Amino acid sequence: MSDPNGPQPSRTTRSDQVQRRWRTQGIIAGVVIAAILLAIVVTRSGDDDPQASATPTGSGSATIATEPADLLALSVTGAPNALLATVGSVGGVPSAALVLPPEMTVTMPGAGEVTTDALQDLPGDSMRVGVSNVDGAWNEHYAVIALDRFGAIVDRVGGLSVDLADAYTVGATLVGPGPTQLSGQQTVALLQENADDTGARWASVLSSFLAAKPSLSPTDLADTDDPQVAAQVLGGGGAHVEMAPTQVVGGSLLIPAQPSFDELMTQVFGTPVPLRVDVLNGNGEPGVGEAVGAQLIPAGFRVVLSENADTFDHQTTDIVADGTEHEQAAQTVKDALGVGKVIVSSIASGLADVTVTVGKDYHP
């Protein structure tokens, strides 16, 4: 479940201030795109959560993807706050990156609601599943770098010229705002502080890191599914970096802002908007939710609810379409899992497009 304390309101206030600087930096390149995106948001604003207590925030200066990108989930570990991002590449060359803010509450298949900080604590392969579910698009690869090693890589490229959105005390030195040269040690210190605006700091550092075209070796990576691909993507050149749009609900809970989040994913990575699926563990086997998520996310789904079924004695996997309009989606779920019985509910609930109760016939 999510952190019972949730993110503090001060995070939202400070993040809004920092993100306004990001918006200003992208006005010239993104004014036409921003106008189009604004029109879409206004048209669909009636779909937003009426309980939201803050306007969705993001940098608002994204570039439009010319073709679908391959995605890599990047995690830099060792800081008190999550340093997570999805890096998209086309032909092995980075095209864009999306930072997932710390303390954002998300759904992890098999674990339910967690924060992005808890997501980062998972093993690399599980972290990849969680990031993919947040994105609503499968991250084909993942890479994990320890923060101290990240600092060493920064020193190898001669430091980073980071455009800081604020003034920070790093050690005994005051750095920023604006373009600032940082050593590896200073970069680590900047990211290691338990700060409200860690997401913006990380976005600034990541943008400069990718632009520096770092040459990575397998020893630089604490965990990855493919060292060669990770090195190629992260060292391939500059990429436009966005911060995920978020909103606060219930006064303190930070969540992805929809539909803005999915619209941004489509815009910068060329990914389609995912279908919504609930996954209920009806056979009692541990790890079922994550395994099902790993099969359904690449098929075009996002797990929006992951919990146990009422009992663990379900023999057959039931795949319930939420109304006849989602019958084909339910069939796609069955094809992805390789088992199950499709059932069409005559009364659409609107909670999810498909609900899956995993039975004993399912084997990952």
Would you write up a description of this structure?
- The structure is a single chain.
- The protein is of the alpha/beta class.
- It has two domains: 9-269, 3-Layer(aba) Sandwich (Aminopeptidase), CATH 3.40.630; 275-358, Alpha-Beta Plaits, CATH 3.30.70.2390.
- It has helices spanning 9-25, 27-44, 116-120, 124-135, 147-156, 184-192, 198-211, 227-234, 260-269, 288-296, 327-337; strands at 70-77, 84-90, 93-100, 105-108, 112-115, 141-146, 160-164, 168-170, 173-175, 178-182, 223-224, 240-243, 246-249, 253-256, 275-281, 301-308, 318-322, 341-345, 354-358.
- The protein is elongated and about 65 Å long.
- It starts with 8 loop residues before the first helix and ends in a 6-residue tail after the last strand.
- The model is unreliable at 1-60 (pLDDT under 50).
Name the descriptors:
364 residues, alpha/beta, Aminopeptidase, Alpha-Beta Plaits, six-stranded mixed beta sheet, five-stranded mixed beta sheet, 11 helices
The main sheet comes to: 6 strands, mixed
Low-confidence stretches: 1-60
Number of domains: 2
β-strand percent reads 25-35%
Shape: elongated
Please state the structural category.
alpha/beta
CATH domain topology of the largest domain: Aminopeptidase
Radius of gyration: 20 Å
State the helicity in percent bands: 25-40%
CATH architectural arrangement of the largest domain: 3-Layer(aba) Sandwich
Please report the distance between the alpha carbons of the first and last residues: 24 Å
Superfamily at the CATH H level of the largest domain?
LCP protein
Order of helices and strands: HHEEEEEHHEHEEEEHHEHEEEHEHEEHEE
Strands, count: 19
